[in-house]
Amino acid sequence: METTHESFPDNGMPEAPMAAIARTTPSRLSLPAKGSCWYCEKPLDSVRRFCGKSCADSFDEEAEYTR
């Protein structure tokens, strides 16, 4: 069993579980911006990857099922 000091980092907040971090990190952040939404193909600027949170979440959900 770990001590209280080990379970809380310097900022006093509990550390996020690694499973939650790993679930959102790989697919979305590795995509290059292509000028349109990666999920619905709506035109975007040259910086954004998704037009909104719903498309980003849908993309992640679909990626989870196609693993």
Tell me about this structure:
By secondary structure, the chain is mainly alpha-helical. The chain is built from 4 helices and no strands. It is globular and about 40 Å long. The relative contact order is 0.13.
Percent of residues in β-strands: under 5%
Shape: globular
Largest sheet: none
Structural class: mainly alpha
Task: State the order of secondary-structure elements, H for helix, E for strand.
Answer: HHHH
Low-confidence stretches: none
**What would the average pLDDT be, to the nearest integer?**
77
Helix segment tally: 4
Q: Tell me the Rg in angstroms.
A: 17 Å
Tell me the distance between the termini: 34 Å
The share of residues in helices is 40-55%
- Structure summary, number of beta strands: 0
List keywords for this structure.
67 residues, 43% helix, mainly alpha, single chain
Q: Brief description of this entry?
A:
With 67 residues, the protein is mostly helical.
Topology, please?
Blueprint: H1 4-7, H2 18-24, H3 26-30, H4 53-65
